[in-house]
Specification:
CATH architecture of the largest domain: 3-Layer(aba) Sandwich
Radius of gyration: 19 Å
Number of helices: 8
Distance between the termini: 30 Å
Number of strands: 15
Helix content: 25-40%
Number of domains: 2
CATH class of the largest domain: Alpha Beta
Shape: globular
Strand order of the largest sheet: 2-1-3-4-5
C-alpha cells in the first residue's frame, strides 16, 4: 500500500486539528506539514512535494484558489478544498466528482473526500480534476455575485452591505446589536434571538445571552470551571461564556471534533 504524503493548511487552529485527527486514523496517510496561510501552503508544497493538500479557501496572504493557480501544474498535489463558506457550488463539486468539504463535516463526509482523493492520486488524475474544480468555482462565482449571507446596515444614512462571514463577533448593545469586523463596527436594530436564528451555525456560536462568536476568528478556548469557558479571538479579545450555554458549546465542539 503506497504511503500518501499530505499537508494541512487552514488559518483556523480548530480546523487544522479536526483534519489532522481524521487523517491520523488512516494508516496510508503521512502528514508532512501544517500551515496557516497561503504562503505557508506554497512553501510546504515546494519543500515537501506532498501528494495531497487540504486547503482552506479563504486564508490570509493568499486564498486557496490563489495558491493552486500560482503553482505550476506539474507541482500541484491533489487538492481538497475545505471551507466554512457554503456560498460555493457544493452540489456541483459533488456531482462532478471533485473535492470540496464544507465545515463542520462529519467523519463520513470527510472520509468520502479522502478516499476519493486517494483513489485519484493512485490514478494520477489530480491535475485534470484540480483544473475542473477551479473552473467550477469560477463559473459559479460569476453566475452568483449576490452573496446570500449579507446584512444591510445604515452608515450616516447610507445603506451598506456587510458580509456576515466578515463579522468576528456580535454583542447586544441596548436595543441594538454591535457587529464587530476587522476594522469596522456597525450597529443594527435586531434581537439576539432573531439574529442567531438567521446565522450560519457551522461557524457562528452563541456563547452568552449577549454574545455570538464567529469561530472562524477564534484563536483558542479554555474551560474555567463552574460551567464557563473563556474564548480568545485572533485579535486578542476575550469572552467568557454564560453558564447556561455550556451544553450547547460542548455539543458544537464535539460535532467538529475539537
Amino acid at each position: 500500500m503506497k504511503s500518501i504524503r499530505a499537508i494541512i493548511v487552514d488559518d483556523e487552529f480548530l480546523g487544522r486539528g479536526r483534519i489532522k485527527k481524521l487523517l491520523l486514523e488512516n494508516d496510508q496517510i503521512q502528514i508532512v506539514g501544517e500551515g496557516k496561510n497561503g504562503d505557508d501552503a506554497i512553501n510546504l508544497i515546494r519543500d515537501y512535494k506532498p501528494d495531497l493538500a487540504f486547503l482552506d479557501i479563504e486564508m490570509p496572504l493568499k486564498s486557496g484558489l490563489q495558491v493552486v493557480r500560482q503553482l505550476p501544474e506539474k507541482d500541484r498535489p491533489f487538492i481538497v478544498f475545505v471551507t466554512a463558506h457554503d456560498r460555493f457550488a457544493i452540489k456541483a463539486f459533488d456531482v462532478n466528482a471533485t473535492d470540496f468539504v464544507l465545515k463542520p463535516f462529519d467523519d463520513a463526509r470527510f472520509n468520502k473526500a479522502l478516499n476519493q482523493a486517494v483513489h485519484q492520486i493512485e490514478l494520477h488524475q489530480q491535475g485534470r480534476l484540480n483544473d475542473r474544480l477551479l473552473q467550477l468555482m469560477d463559473d459559479y462565482k460569476s453566475e452568483n455575485l449576490a452573496q446570500p449571507f449579507v446584512i444591510n446596515v445604515k452608515v450616516r444614512g447610507v445603506d451598506k452591505r456587510v458580509n456576515l462571514y466578515d463579522v468576528h463577533y456580535i454583542e447586544a448593545d441596548g436595543n441594538y446589536l454591535r457587529l464587530q469586523l476587522e476594522n469596522e463596527r456597525f450597529l443594527v436594530r435586531n434581537t439576539m434571538h432573531q439574529m442567531n436564528d438567521e446565522l450560519d451555525h457551522s461557524c457562528f456560536l452563541r456563547i452568552h445571552r449577549s454574545v455570538i462568536l464567529n469561530t472562524n476568528y477564534l484563536q483558542g478556548k479554555s474551560y474555567k470551571g463552574n460551567n464557563e469557558f473563556q474564548f480568545k479571538m485572533r485579535n486578542g479579545e476575550t469572552f467568557v461564556s454564560g453558564r447556561s450555554f455550556k451544553e450547547s458549546i460542548d455539543a458544537y465542539f464535539e460535532e467538529i471534533g475539537a
